[in-house]
Amino acid sequence: MQKNTGLIFAADLENGRRAINITNEISDLIDAVKVNYPIILSNGLQIVEELSRTKTVIADLKIADVPHINRKICRNVFEAGASAVICHGFTGKNSIEACIETANQMYGDVYVVAEMSHPDAERFIHHASKEIINIASQLGADGLIAPANDPKRLQKVRKQSKNMRILSPGVGVQGGGAKTAIQAGADQIIVGRSIYDHREPRQAAEKIVQDIGYTNP
Ligand code: 3DU
């Protein structure tokens, strides 16, 4: 996935038509659109194909199964038009590797969840993040997911991950700021509700892109 504005739109809407309309409306302001279970379960995989006509699609299914199932999940979403998948890292080497191998066969990218942005994340995943980052790096993952709303942890992930790409959710409703996250080491920012719940989604996206520091060449 190419980095341009630095903004990724999380289209967590059950209404597929609305997701497509907003994506079209802000298409020049975003690097990709991220789809998750809500939109896929409500609209089917067809929505991946439809969105991929406008924009690079990241399938955020937080894939976390045994390797042969991970392969099938990846194959299905890549065949539907996704350019990247997000998988969990806590499942360990073989499960992540299954995603990366499938992605390589299908010219897709894999981003691995290193840490999460909700308060309970401290309880489990944060203890494992250093090892997850090492495995993701050794396997050649395209990048990591780490929280924008916890700049200290984000800085730590940045340090540990050296120059791996970091995509950061947690901006806006979850309390994080785009500028702070970029300064802490994020490469691209993932935003959902602050865009799709805004009265003027384009205006909201413009403001975030400004905060990221993107200037139109
Ligand atoms: O809070 P928002 O509405 O901007 O949505 C954030 C998106 O990022 C959403 O799709 C969610 O699944 C994803 N995400 C997190 O919020 C936190 C994580 O740790 C990982 C992914």
From TrEMBL:
UniProt GO BP: 'de novo' pyrimidine nucleobase biosynthetic process; 'de novo' UMP biosynthetic process
GO terms for MF: orotidine-5'-phosphate decarboxylase activity
Enzyme class: lyase
Domain named Orotidine 5'-phosphate decarboxylase: residues: 6-208
EC numbers for this chain: 4.1.1.23
InterPro entries with a match to the protein in the record: Aldolase_TIM (IPR013785), OMPdecase (IPR014732), OMPdecase_arc (IPR047595), OMPdeCOase_dom (IPR001754), RibuloseP-bd_barrel (IPR011060)
Residues at the catalytic site: D60 (for ompdecase activity), K62 (proton donor), K62 (for ompdecase activity), D65 (for ompdecase activity)
Annotated SMART domains: OMPdecase
Keywords annotated in UniProt: Decarboxylase, Lyase, Pyrimidine biosynthesis
The keyword Lyase is annotated on this UniProt entry: yes
The family this protein is said to belong to: Belongs to the OMP decarboxylase family. Type 1 subfamily.
Name listed for the protein in its UniProt record: Orotidine 5'-phosphate decarboxylase
Organism: Methanonatronarchaeum thermophilum
Name of the gene encoding the protein in the UniProt record: pyrF
